[in-house]
Amino acid sequence: MNDVYEIAPVEGGKAGGMARVATLRNRLLEENPHVITTLSGDFVSPSLIGTLTYQGEKIAGKQMVEVMNALGVDYVVPGNHEYDIKEDEHLKRIAESDFQWITTNCFHKVDGKIVPWEQNGKPFPDHVIYSIDGVDIAFFGSTVPFNKKEYVSYTDKYESVKATYEKLKDEAEVFIGITHLEEDMDDSLATYFVPELDLILGGHDHVNMKHQYGDVIMTKADANAKTVYVHRVSYNKATGKTTIQSELVSIDETIAEDPTVKKVVDKWVNISNESMANMGYQPDEIVMVTKDTLDGRESSIRYKPTNYPIMTAESFLFVAPEADLAIFNSGSIRLDDILTGTITEYDILRSFPFGGGISLVDLQGDVVERVLETGTITNIGIGGYLQLANAEKRNDGWYIKGEKLSASKTYKMALPQFVMGGGEANLEFLKNYQNQSQNPDSFKEVKNDVRDIIMAYFRQLPQGN
């Protein structure tokens, strides 16, 4: 598995669900007692449940660790989102883990010193050896150094794996990487640094794939356990040859839910449902049915115009048609996943866990142009990258509602209140115009909260297209 933020089924119950994964694991154990279950990073964050409070503390991934313990996960590597939460929260999640954390390149920064992360008083190992009938299988991995939290330090994502392999190459027969890297990084790792790997269990990209880099097989499953990869690995002692049969298994309604794991899942679902109900939402209520794929992955929305955040900007114009254009900061979408099929209120809430209203402000054209240029060029790759509605850049400049932007004309812009208050990097200057903005409590019957706004917009769109 990789990139699992949701413990219960998604897509209206049709896909995913950790209790279903547990059933599959139990079936595999009947086939072979040597079943090794791994998760290739990104599990304690992001999730809606993780943002809620339970028994006086922010949940912050506690629900995932409990479910993974119940399921029987063996090994994990950190993903970049493991470091979204606070340092003390991260340390608690490690302490609660029954599974083994391993890493070759992630370290803990304490009082300016770089030290290994610890679990049960011992440093995270840079590898784990699993032995079967005299055959040793080495697991080791690497993480993208994207999350630059002050309490985290990284060594080189390639050289760290290479150094570990060089140390182990005479101690094991089978070598398996558990990585949380981008697809091209896995390619580089297998092609240029450790071509001796037999298998890479990848993560980070959220969509299933299987590639062969020389003799190295690399696979990734779909996020949120909508699929998992099952690898049947055999080693011939006489010839020294490793054979791998890889099967992508869909986790869907045809797989029953394991009752033990379901009990833990239901506990946390009930806690979150109660919180959402207190906020006025019905998690299972259908908002939209679509054949399209709404892309909320950070690797898309922070780098290029993408449909889900564009539709969010369009929803601002739906409730405020008097606005000439709308902008939306991609970092407000915390889904880091794709949505398709049945979209529920819960899907919207997990996309926008922090909510927040929108503002309307009149700005001169030269200021509008500065916002657009900064948000779509300077801010590429960060949360302040802007997605637009009714604004388009052509060869000869910016156009608003199909007409070329005039520096002296006044335009009414709809934007998140967070952005209006100067909360995004390089757009802090917008705070200078905050006192002339309008911040209504509602737009007719729609509450001024981005979650309510996009729900209302989605509900009026043609369904099933």
Automatic annotation (TrEMBL):
The keyword Signal applies. One of its GO terms (biological process) is nucleotide catabolic process. This is Bifunctional metallophosphatase/5'-nucleotidase. It comes from Roseivirga spongicola. Pfam families: 5_nucleotid_C (PF02872), Metallophos (PF00149). Keywords: Hydrolase, Nucleotide-binding, Signal. Residues 15-207 form the Calcineurin-like phosphoesterase domain. One of its GO terms (molecular function) is nucleotide binding. InterPro entries: 5'-Nucleotdase_C, 5'-Nucleotdase_C_sf, 5_nucleotidase/apyrase, Calcineurin-like_PHP, Metallo-depent_PP-like. GO terms for cellular component: outer membrane-bounded periplasmic space. The keyword Nucleotide-binding applies. Belongs to the 5'-nucleotidase family. Residues 296-424 form the 5'-Nucleotidase C-terminal domain.
